[in-house]
Amino acid sequence: DSVRQLKGPSRPLNTEMDRARVIAALGCVDAVCIFPEMRATRFLGWVQPDIYVKGGDYTLETIDQNERRAVEDGGGRISFLAFVPGKSTTGLLEKIQRL
After folding, report:
1. Ordered per-residue pLDDT tens for the chain, 99 residues
2. Do the Cβ atoms of 37 and 2 come closer than 8 Å?
3. Contact 58, 79 (CB under 8 A)
């Protein structure tokens, strides 16, 4: 629901369970949790992650500050992953529309 709220009614393309399975398959991921809220604040306060990862379109100043506080208050740190050029779902959808 949160992806749909953030990116529009046609998103996400994959189900939340499929998305969770892909993330869980990464060796560096200890656990995946699907939560019902738009923001992860309550979840982050509960699990107190060592590392909270966000996409490269965010910065410490632009992420939800309640999420930031929940991570930092729990002793965790926030890391931002850079986008891989040409590998976004939005870009893929734009390419398909041009066909």
Report:
1. 778 888 888 888 888 999 999 999 999 888 888 888 889 999 999 999 999 999 888 999 999 999 999 999 999 999 999 988 888 888 888 889 999
2. yes
3. no
